[in-house]
């Protein structure tokens, strides 16, 4: 092999240190479709177990929904597996335009542009719209894809303290000499499940003539009275300039993302956004299934309503059991433990009890704030939630987390 032995030794040491510190991320292999009950192969012994899944972004249970699967099959038969091209050459089908129309209508915006993921959407929006004459003001806890997208942009980069509106206003005042200012925030912050203060942020954006971008990946389809997202939750629909979001969570859980917003922004992205211009078109299978998912959510709020009920039920029961959780209503429920090693041990013990969860620790979250992030789904029934609370209680007492 061409790699120098010094290089090999360096990365071997890196891996050993991760394992020694109990920070090594293990991948468990699923032997079933995504759902509430799944078959998982544990990497330590290769045994396949039946467990209840509490760590997927399958918020509405659409990943294995019969109507979504049928739509994917139909798209495969009618439009093929892939386009083998980018959009502006020969990779745009009629259903790509239909999905763009449906997602923009669903979110109450003028137009939309599709990407292979929301990570790519966030990687392509800032560089295309801003330059060195501008300023980008970002919440300090924004998702990694936003951070990486900002790094590609030549605008001045500023961070405001998490959800601190006074600090945001300070940066807006300090950058009034810039050509454009852009505020960017997650709609829902994925580690805590807390919602950005979009009502206040909209007021500040309008007062200081700033563009507002919201990543609503953990909200589209289920936050708000009809699932439109955090802008519906805060009653600011029509006041957010740009929304980036994913089809890989609540809307079927496969792949794909988009930017929706005012048409003038979308038009510019079609001409300048590099991940759009130089990446293959989104697969017809994903497009067809996502269209069906949006249709299901447009016809009824039943899945969104069940998810809301499940999340509130779990939050009440886990608190009553004695665990510390972050306040809120979102189906992301962080159970705060603090110690990274204890979080890892607890996740392993819960797996042995038939509950599949994952621990999060530094550098994903700040030191001392290690937690198990539980994610509730509309696919869960009450018996799933009760089993999870019982297992958490048993393991919590065993490991000394609960008295």
The outline comes out as globular
Percent in helix: 40-55%
| SS elements, strand count | 16
* Rg over C-alpha atoms, rounded to the nearest angstrom: 22 Å
Protein topology:
Layout lengths: L4 H16 L8 E2 L6 E5 L6 E6 L12 H14 L7 H4 L3 H13 L4 E5 L2 H12 L5 E5 L4 H8 L4 E5 L4 H10 L6 E6 L1 E2 L4 E2 L2 H10 L3 E5 L14 H4 L8 E5 L10 E5 L1 H10 L1 H4 L6 H16 L2 H19 L11 E7 L1 H13 L2 E2 L1 E3 L9 E6 L6 H17 L5
Parallel strand pairs: 3-14, 5-6, 5-7, 7-10, 10-11
Antiparallel strand pairs: 1-2, 2-3, 4-12, 8-9, 11-12, 13-16, 15-16
Helix pairs in contact: 2-12, 4-12, 5-6, 5-10, 13-15
Which properties best describe this structure?
7-stranded mixed beta sheet; 4-stranded mixed beta sheet; 18% strand; 403 residues; alpha/beta
Structure description:
- It is a single chain.
- With 403 residues, the protein is of the alpha/beta class.
- It has 15 helices and 16 strands.
- A 7-stranded mixed sheet has the order 4-12-11-10-7-5-6, with helices on both faces. It has a 4-stranded mixed sheet with strand order 1-2-3-14.
- Strand 10 (211-215), helix 9 and strand 11 (242-246) form a beta-alpha-beta unit.
- Helix 5 runs parallel beside helix 6 (144-151), helix 5 (118-129) crosses helix 10 (263-272) and helix 13 (302-320) packs parallel to helix 15.
- 47% of the residues are buried.
- The model has no long low-confidence stretch (mean pLDDT 94).
